[in-house]
């Protein structure tokens, strides 16, 4: 478990299955999550002091740094056929996210949300 350094009601949790979830105190459902963040149990997590980056350490002997993609970044997905690039899909997702943020006053997770 790691509390966000800026937003006191935001925290992340790491699971024994290698998953990472982001929570906001007072909500029953997670804000976001990564089911396969690691291949083993997550031992520790910590936020950068400015809150834009999360680091996680796992039983799979890896340390991973997590940040939010910026608008225009290319999303890379690995598959058996090779690496697929989806820049247009990311742009569409970002546009939809901005529209959603403008339409509601929901909590926005800095750096990840």
Automatic annotation (TrEMBL):
<dbReference type="GO" id="GO:0031124">
    <property type="term" value="P:mRNA 3'-end processing"/>
</dbReference>
<feature type="repeat" description="WD">
    <location>
        <begin position="35"/>
        <end position="66"/>
    </location>
</feature>
<feature type="repeat" description="WD">
    <location>
        <begin position="1"/>
        <end position="33"/>
    </location>
</feature>
<dbReference type="Pfam" id="PF00400">
    <property type="entry name" value="WD40"/>
</dbReference>
<protein>
    <submittedName>
        <fullName>Uncharacterized protein</fullName>
    </submittedName>
</protein>
<dbReference type="InterPro" id="IPR036322">
    <property type="entry name" value="WD40_repeat_dom_sf"/>
</dbReference>
<keyword id="KW-0853">WD repeat</keyword>
<dbReference type="InterPro" id="IPR045245">
    <property type="entry name" value="Pfs2-like"/>
</dbReference>
<dbReference type="InterPro" id="IPR001680">
    <property type="entry name" value="WD40_rpt"/>
</dbReference>
<dbReference type="InterPro" id="IPR015943">
    <property type="entry name" value="WD40/YVTN_repeat-like_dom_sf"/>
</dbReference>
<dbReference type="GO" id="GO:0005847">
    <property type="term" value="C:mRNA cleavage and polyadenylation specificity factor complex"/>
</dbReference>
């Amino acid at each position: 478990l790691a509390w966000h350094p800026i937003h006191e009601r935001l925290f992340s949790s790491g699971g024994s299955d290698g998953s990472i979830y982001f929570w906001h105190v007072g909500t029953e459902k997670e804000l976001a999550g990564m089911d396969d963040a690691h291949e083993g149990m997550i031992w520790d997590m910590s936020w950068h002091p400015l809150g834009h980056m999360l680091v996680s350490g796992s039983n799979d002997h890896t340390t991973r740094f997590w940040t939010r993609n910026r608008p225009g970044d290319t999303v890379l997905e690995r598959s058996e056929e090779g690496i697929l690039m989806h820049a247009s899909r990311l742009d569409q997702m970002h546009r939809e996210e901005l529209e959603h943020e403008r339409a509601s006053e929901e909590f926005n997770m800095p750096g990840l949300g």
